């Protein structure tokens, strides 16, 4: 069953552009992770001010394996070991997870 893991990122008021720029320069190492299906960064327009990092996986086990992998560490290298003077692009994060029970796709 397709598994969806969403990282809910709380960004400072003026932090959206920096976060989008970070993701625009992302490593792309996740793209070759076993079981990875897709990734989207969603910019909030209404109803919330949080950004959503939506990832889809062949299974929950594939996602968990990725979060414990060098690929995850590589993909987050700049998000974690940044020099003190460089601001964090997110002030908080939490994870939502779902199983896709019914779907219809056009792509
Ligand atoms: C402490 C929590 C986390 C923070 C603050 C965070 C932040 C970021 C940032 C800023 C980037 C952009 C690249 C960079 O600057 O390094 C990134 C990459 C990414 N994040 Fe996270 N992240 C976190 C955890 C997660 C989790 C749990 C997921 C999965 C739902 C996730 C999914 C991704 C994906 C798919 C990329 C692109 C990686 C690549 O291109 O290889 N992140 N993250």
Describe the model.
This protein has 107 residues and is of the alpha+beta class. It has one domain (3-99): Alpha-Beta Plaits. 25% of the residues lie in helices and 28% in strands. The protein contains four helices and four strands; from the N terminus they run E-H-E-E-H-H-H-E. A four-stranded antiparallel sheet has the order 2-3-1-4. A hairpin with an 8-residue loop joins strand 2 and strand 3. The longest helix is centred in the first third of the chain and has 9 residues, at 16-24. It is globular, with a radius of gyration of 14 Å. It starts with a strand and ends in an 8-residue tail after the last strand. The model has no long low-confidence stretch (mean pLDDT 89). It binds protoporphyrin IX containing FE (HEM). Protoporphyrin IX containing FE binds next to strand 1, helix 1, strand 3, helix 4 and strand 4.
Topology of this protein?
Elements: E1 3-10, H1 16-24, E2 36-42, E3 51-57, H2 60-67, H3 70-75, H4 77-80, E4 92-99
Antiparallel strand pairs: 1-3, 1-4, 2-3
The structure holds protoporphyrin IX containing FE (HEM).
Based on Cα principal axes, name the global outline: globular
Structural class: alpha+beta
Strand order of the largest sheet: 2-3-1-4
The assembly state of the depicted protein chains is single chain
Number of separate strands: 4
The total count of helices amounts to 4
Mean pLDDT across all amino acids = 89
User: How far do the termini sit from each other?
Assistant: 18 Å
Query: Which segments are poorly predicted (pLDDT under 50) over 5 or more consecutive residues?
Result: none
Helix content: 25-40%
Bound molecules: protoporphyrin IX containing FE
Radius of gyration: 14 Å
